[in-house]
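Customer escalation, tier 2.

The customer says the design service returned an amino acid string that "doesn't look like it belongs to this structure." They asked us to rerun it and document both sides in this ticket. The original structure tokens are below, unchanged.
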């Protein structure tokens, strides 16, 4: 039996690239869908608003682990084999879209009504109003929460280990099984998560403080 050493540490560190890859896919994919959901939630059509709200609340109320199991095992019932990374990416994207959509919806609703009315008085189309008047302000409002949720996505990628995807948590499990030194293995995993998440957390807090000071001046 070998002990935990540089080889195992390098193996865990090398798996970080898959954690970051999965995070990027989920954040970008969830962001694109989240934009659509946020816009649908402020639509003038009541039916669209209600359907979107129901879909978002369903996903938000569904444990990510269950969603990941569904994405991994359900295609097999239809005769399709889905790899662990594809299933994990789909599950994380769906989950992220619901929460990012809610964050961005709140930012859009936070823009005062006179802003919308002024754009309408200038004969701007709804798309022009959103693009040139509302979105630039909403982005600044949503940025701290968006960065904060990015940290959550990074940590949620660890759930992909349950379906066999080798990110840093799964790599830590494999190193632990090989060396029978779980404490060292998972301390290395924890250190990597901290190294990635701590700077983003500080960035989110800095953006929030900056935004608070801006509102205090106004």
């Amino acid at each position: 039996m070998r002990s935990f050493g540089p080889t195992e540490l390098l193996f865990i560190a090398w798996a970080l690239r898959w954690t970051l890859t999965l995070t990027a896919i989920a954040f970008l994919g969830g962001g694109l869908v989240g934009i659509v959901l946020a816009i649908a939630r402020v639509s003038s059509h009541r039916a669209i608003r209600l359907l979107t709200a129901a879909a978002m609340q369903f996903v938000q109320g569904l444990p990510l682990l269950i969603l990941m199991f569904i994405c991994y095992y359900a295609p097999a019932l239809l005769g399709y084999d889905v790899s662990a990374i594809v299933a994990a990416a789909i599950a994380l994207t769906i989950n992220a879209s619901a929460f990012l959509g809610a964050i961005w919806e709140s930012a859009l609703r936070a823009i005062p009504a006179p802003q919308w009315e002024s754009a309408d008085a200038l004969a701007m189309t709804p798309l022009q109003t959103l693009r040139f008047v509302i979105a630039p302000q909403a982005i600044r409002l949503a940025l701290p929460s968006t960065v904060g949720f990015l940290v959550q996505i990074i940590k949620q990628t660890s759930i992909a280990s349950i379906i066999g995807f080798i990110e840093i948590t799964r790599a830590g499990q494999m190193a632990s099984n090989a060396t029978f030194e779980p404490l060292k293995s998972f301390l290395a995993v924890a250190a990597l998560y901290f190294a990635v998440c701590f700077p983003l957390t500080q960035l989110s807090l800095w953006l929030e403080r900056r935004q608070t000071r801006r509102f205090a001046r106004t």
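Tier 2 assessment: The sequence is consistent with the input. The chain has a mean pLDDT of 92. The two ends are 65 Å apart (CA to CA). Sent an explanation to the customer and offered a walkthrough call.
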